[in-house]
Structure formats: C-alpha cells, structure tokens
Amino acid sequence: MKQTIKELKEKFISDSESFVNEIKKLYSLSDDQINWKPDSDVWSVAECIEHLAVTNKLYFNEMERQFAEKQISCIDSDEIVKHKFFGKLIIKAVNPLNLKKTKTFDVFKPARSFYDKNVIDKLINIQKDLINLISASFNINFNKYVMSSPASKLIKENFSDVLEIIRLHNKRHLLQIDQLIKEKNFPA
User: Fold this and answer.
1) Nearest-angstrom CA–CA distance, 82 and 158
2) Which CATH superfamily does the domain covering 5-181 fall into?
C-alpha cells in the first residue's frame, strides 16, 4: 500500500505517542525488575530501553542537523514515500512481525548492564524530541534527505526509511520488554 510522506509522519507521531505512554508504565517497576535478565545473553528491560535511546538519539541528531542546514520542500500530502534499498532491508529486519532474532551493531549496544529509572526518562525525552521535530517538519521531502546509517557509512537511508525504522524498532523492543515482564521468573 502506497502512503504519502504526510501519512508516514502522522503514523510515526501517533505510534510514538502511544509508545511513550507504554514506556511510562515501566516506572512502576523496581530497579531490580528493569535490570533482571532471564539469561546472560538476553537484554534486560533497561538494556532494551537504553538501546532504543541510543539508536533514536543518533537518528534524531542527524535529522535535526540536516533540517537546520536546508529545507528540501514538497507537498507532503502528495509525495509518495520511496524507501531506499538498504532502508527496505532494515525495515524488514526490525519489523515486529519478523520473529528472527537480529544482532545489533556495537554503536547501538547499551554501554553497561545496570541502569536506574533515569534510563526511562532518557528514552521518553528523546522520543518526545523526535515527535516535536517531525511535527514541525511541514511539507519537507523526507525522500530527499539521505544519511549514512550510524551502523555503517556504506548504508544509506533516507528520512522516510528512518521514520519507519524507528517506529517499527520501537514496537519490536516493546514486545521484547513485554515478553521479559511475563517471564515466569521475573522478580515480583
């Protein structure tokens, strides 16, 4: 199904607002709960949150920088989203419907293994910054802005790719967090 840049942005903002509301529910967990791991090779709730915060901040910084430098305009209600080759591959990989486990690049990994609840604040603030940036980007052609992926200079993504990657990646890890909390040995 083809969608316009305006529709992509609206879906991103709506899903991001829902995502922030879901993440806020994690404040009810203790530090022990958000740092609990069922196995050494599985991320904790806090590590998932930190991973999203790091990833989304890297994307936000580049988008904000490029928007400040120049405005590539279009009528975003008419412009159809065009994903780039690598963008399509990454979108497929981070889609929550893709049940295949994916290893992340070092640049996106959590820096440590124990966090307090400030990690929740960090992610919420970054996501709100993204919402504000996208909300203010009226009639900007997200297909024409291109950046190298923070993972590799060889991987080129346009901002239409980036919005869909962030949106689906957030959902994927929200499901992962939900599964962790439902684990039988999750601390009470």
Assistant:
1) 9
2) dinb family like domain (1.20.120.450)
